[in-house]
Amino acid sequence: MIGVGMVCSSLALLPATGWSQAITYAKDIEPLFKARCTGCHGPASPLIGEFDKDKEKYAKVMKGPRMDSYKLMVEFVNGGEAGAIMRRLDDGKNTKDSKPGNMYQFLGANDEERTKNLQTLKGWVGHWTLKRKAELTAEDRKGFLVPEK
Q1: Comparing C-alpha atoms, which of 60, 73, 93, 79 is closest to residue 132?
Q2: Please, which residues have CB within 8 angstroms of residue 121's CB and are 6 or more apart in sequence?
Q3: Which residues contact 29 (CB under 8 A, 6 or more apart)?
Q4: Which of 28, 112, 120, 144 is least enclosed, having the fewest CB within 10 Å?
Q5: Which residues contact 108 (CB under 8 A, 6 or more apart)?
Q6: d(Cα 116, Cα 97) in Å, to the nearest integer?
Q7: Burial degree of 108 (CB within 10 A; 0-12, 13-18, 19+)
């Protein structure tokens, strides 16, 4: 018979790949954001309040609202702009018309990369919903994970 200690020490020798690891902002989302989004949503972009004052002006110069920190990005998941990031990045599989969000195309250079990056974002958010802030329930909000570290 195999003892518990032997099983546990054997498991410790297994490689970490394939085991589920928590997706965090610092480890997964920030590098993804820097690689795919910072040109339009980085430090040179306006904060959401400023952006909302003249969206057309910023669209002409390819600037969206600034999201280059954990705190700013969480605003678009579960804060003042709750749900916006999910609606913009969705692949269309969650919509009636099957149309992806307007930012989905920027998640990768090809379908495979976009799918992989979307799955990473979904894992970080937890409860992927296309609802707007006013439509979110307490249960919806409980489902948002968004760990920083």
Answers
A1: 79
A2: 29, 32, 85, 89, 107
A3: 23, 73, 120, 121, 124
A4: 112
A5: 36, 114, 115, 116, 117
A6: 22
A7: middle
